[in-house]
Amino acid sequence: MGSQNTDVIRAALTAAVATGVGGFGVMCVLAATAPTSLRSLPDLWSYRSATWGDGLLLPLSCGALVFARRNLPGGGSRGVTATMAVAGGLGGLATQVFWLLDDSPRLNWTLPEPHRFNAAGVYHGVYLVIMSSIFAGLWASIISRIRASVRAGDAVSWPLVGGGIGLALGAGAGFAALVIADNQISAGSSSSASTLVTIGAALLGTFGVGALLARSIWQRSRSRRQ
């Protein structure tokens, strides 16, 4: 295995581990040290998106995106990447604002009363905003690099890139499904609705752009063969 391949795998694993430890790992510690007064409320283990999602699917998706990006030549638009990263962060922040503004949210161990996050809730909110920004930036960077590579005719290992993107999409869709299932419990509240709308928009945008990009690559490769 070449040093470049080793570096790509190391970067992907580092991203996956950092995502898992920074989210699920820290939340496990906070849950274990939570005050006993919160035991009557739904805890960390009550949410599949917080356990299987943050513990497995989210790290897997992030690592796969880093793997795909590192297998693409440099280039692309940094401005677009930065803009989408900011937009993703703002989208994540908006969901947290809606949870705080909701007069009748479903309370849990991070939101013990309306309009107030405790320490665990604040940490989770910050983590969510950061990861929303990172995921949006990674997707924008990958799409931008693919477009630049296709236009320039660069040699790209499409099976590796496609495998990483496919794994990221699968894990991301699984995570979104868990979030939707968890939010059905509090369906009808504005906070839950904001989360579902954000997840839905992210899924539609990601799969929509991915489909258009795949179509563009296929058309260009077909025209070159002819």
Computed CA radius of gyration, to the nearest angstrom: 19 Å
List how many beta strands DSSP finds.
Answer: 0
Low-confidence stretches: none
Shape: elongated
Summarize the amount of helix as a percent range: over 70%
User: Would you list the SSEs in sequence order as H and E?
Assistant: HHHHHH
Mean pLDDT: 86
Total domains: 1
Distance between the termini: 35 Å
- Helical element count? 6
Structural class, judged by helices and strands? mainly alpha
- Biggest beta-sheet profile: none
- Amount of beta strand: under 5%
Quick description:
With 226 residues, the protein is mainly alpha-helical.
Q: Would you kindly provide a written description of the structure presented here, covering whatever features stand out?
A:
By secondary structure, this protein is an all-alpha fold. The chain has one domain (3-225). The protein is built from six helices and no strands. Helix 2 runs parallel beside helix 4 (119-152). The mean pLDDT is 86.
How are the secondary structure elements laid out?
Layout: H1 3-32, H2 48-70, H3 78-101, H4 119-152, H5 158-183, H6 190-225
Can you tag this structure with a few keywords?
elongated; 77% helix; 6 helices; mainly alpha; single chain; 226 residues
